[in-house]
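Section 5.1 Outputs to date
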Amino acid sequence: MNHDLASIATALVAKGKGILAADETVPTLTKRFDALGIQSTEESRRTYREMLFVGAAEFISGVIMYDETIRQKSSGGVPLAQLLSDQGILPGIKVDTGAKHLAGSSDEKITEGLDGLRDRLSEYRAMGACFAKWRAVIRIADRLPSTACVSANAHALGRYAALCQEQHLVPIVEPEVLMDGSHTIERCEEITGVVLHAVFQALFEQRVVLEHMLLKPNMVTAGMACSRPAKVQEIAVATLRCLRRHVPAAVPGIVFLSGGQNDRTATAHLNTINQLPGPKPWKISFSYGRALQDPALTAWDGRDENLKLGQQALYHRARCNGAASLGTYTDQMEAASAGG
C-alpha cells in the first residue's frame, strides 16, 4: 500500500497536469449559480460537475469532489468517481466539515471534521477515492494570526493526514493564508513561513510519511487591500523562497490554490514560479477551483445546449495551466481557440 500511495502522489503531479478542485459545498456553489441566475438543485449541480469532469483528462490528473458529488451518477448512470477513473483521472474527496470560529477568538477560525473521520475515509475509499483534502484558513491582521490559531490548525492537518495514510488515501494538506486584508507581501511571506513550519512540525509529530502526501499552499502575495500590489515576478520570487525554506524535499509535489486570483493571473503566477532558476525539489503545479471553473461556469450558464462550450472553456484553462506547470505558458495561448 505504501507503494500505491507514492504512485498516487506522483501521478497527481504528472508532467503537464494538475488538479481540478470541484469540492464547493452546496451553499457555496449555490451562491455562484445565483449570481448567474442558475437554479441550484441536486440535478443542476450534478450536470455542472459532470460537464467539468469530461474532456480535460489531457491536463487534469485528479478531481477533488464534495460529498454530494461522489455519491452521484452521471447522466448515463455511471458513478461520477468511476467516470473520472475511466478517463485516467484520480478521484479525490474533501473531508473537512468547514472552518468555524476558534474558541476564545472571534476573528480566527479552526477547521473541524476530525470526529468520525476514520470511518468516513474508509467509506470514501470504497467509493473509489484515491486522495483527500483538508483546508485550514489563516487570517493576517495587525495581531493575527495568534499562536493558538496556527497551532490548532496545524495539529488538525497533521491528524487528518495521518488518518488518510492509515486508510490508504493520499492526503492533500492545505494551509491557506488568506489574501483578505491590507498586509504587504513581506508580511505574507513571514506568516506563510510560520504556518508552513508549524504544519510540517505537526506532520512530523503525527508520523505522516511526506513522500505520500501533497502540499496545497497559498502563493505569497500582498493583501487584496494593500496600497502596494505585488508584481508577478515579485510574487514568484517570494513564494519560491518561502517554499524552499519551509517545505522538505521529500514532499513530491506542491499544488497551489488560486485563493481569489482570477484565472489568467493564477496561471501567470504559476508559470513565473516554474520559470525561476535554482533548485525545485518538488513538482510545482496547480489545484485550482474558481481559476479553472469560472470561465466554464459562465460559458455553460445553466443551459444544456452550452455543455460543450463549458467543456471547451475548461479545456482551455486546463491547457494553459498545464503549460504553466512546465513554465511554458505564453500570452499567445490565451488567444488560441478555447477548444484547443
